[in-house]
Write a structure and sequence with these properties.
The protein is globular and about 60 Å long. Helix 4 packs across helix 5. The chain folds into 2 domains: about 110 residues, 2-Layer Sandwich (Alpha-Beta Plaits), CATH 3.30.70.580; about 140 residues, 2-Layer Sandwich (Alpha-Beta Plaits). Strand 8 and strand 9 form a beta hairpin. The protein contains 6 helices and 10 strands, in the order E-H-E-E-H-H-E-E-E-H-E-E-E-H-H-E.
């Protein structure tokens, strides 16, 4: 049977999501917990491979496990019926083997056609910026502190230029060439929507962006460039030219990882 996990995590202690030998990753601790629980080798698929230090609120993981696996004894019928008590019992058992920085929020049986990565219609990220003269210690590990005033309306104007289908080479870390591949990896991505949102009493200002897929460091490089615009170091009208240059050196710095949250994933309603 195929199971779906909804996962949240504090990315600060981890070297990203995807398992990587020799370093601790979110996916690595998940695989260890699941393999120990089911007494089987578990392979997972995730909806998005977040970088080191990036947090996850809406991560989705799928994996296959035999119905007679040790960790499913007496639970299969309840899980297939989507019984809340069975789901919570499974969630609690998995979480008991995870560090407090990673939590499974829900578990569900899904069709074999559902895949956390390939079934996704879009992914949404939020980047939080604390824009006040004094840093808030409650948001120290969740936002980028900028003490000089940012002009949010100017950053919103710059956001318009990146909506649509573009080559995002200027905002992406160039991937290593794949041996034997006929063409280099494409940096073409379609951004469905993006905008800056004003701070409220409890939440800093944040940038939200939705696309089906992102390239490496794309969101953080866009945010770094827009912060330059908000500070007045660049003009909003330059964003289009930066995109068209297809040159990483013309864009701004990569924003710190700790302000970025993998916020949510959208799937077809019939899945």
């Amino acid at each position: 049977m195929r199971l779906r996990l909804d996962v949240r995590y504090d990315g600060a202690p981890f070297r990203g999501f995807w398992p990587n030998a020799g370093v601790e990753t979110v996916g690595g601790v998940l695989i260890n917990a699941l393999s120990d629980m089911f007494k089987a080798d578990i392979d997972i698929t995730c909806s998005g491979r977040t970088d080191a230090g990036v947090h996850g609120r809406g991560q989705v993981v799928t994996f296959d496990v035999a119905e007679d696996a040790e960790g499913l004894v007496g639970r299969v019928a309840g899980l297939r019926a989507q019984d809340p008590k069975s789901r919570l019992s499974m969630v609690n058992r998995i979480n008991a083997s995870l560090p407090p920085t990673v939590r499974v929020m829900d578990v569900a049986v899904v069709p074999d056609t559902f895949d956390a990565r390939f079934s996704a219609l879009s992914r949404t990220y939020r980047y939080f910026v604390w824009n006040e003269p004094v840093a808030d210690p409650l948001w120290r590990d969740r936002s980028w502190h900028i003490d000089s005033e940012l002009r949010i309306e100017t950053m919103r104007l710059a956001s318009d230029a990146i909506i649509g289908l573009h080559d995002f080479t200027s905002f992406c870390r160039r991937p290593e060439p794949v041996p034997g591949a006929p063409h280099p990896p494409t940096m073409m991505r379609r951004v469905n929507r993006c905008s800056w949102h004003r701070a409220t009493e409890d939440v800093p200002m944040f940038f939200e962006i939705e696309a089906k897929a992102f390239c490496h460091q794309m969101v953080r490089a866009i945010v770094g460039t827009m912060v330059d615009i908000g500070r007045g170091w660049r003009k909003a009208g330059q964003m289009k030219a930066i995109l068209e240059a297809r040159d990483r050196s013309v864009a701004g710095r990569v924003a710190p990882a700790h302000g970025l949250v993998f916020w949510s994933v959208t799937y077809p309603e019939n899945l």
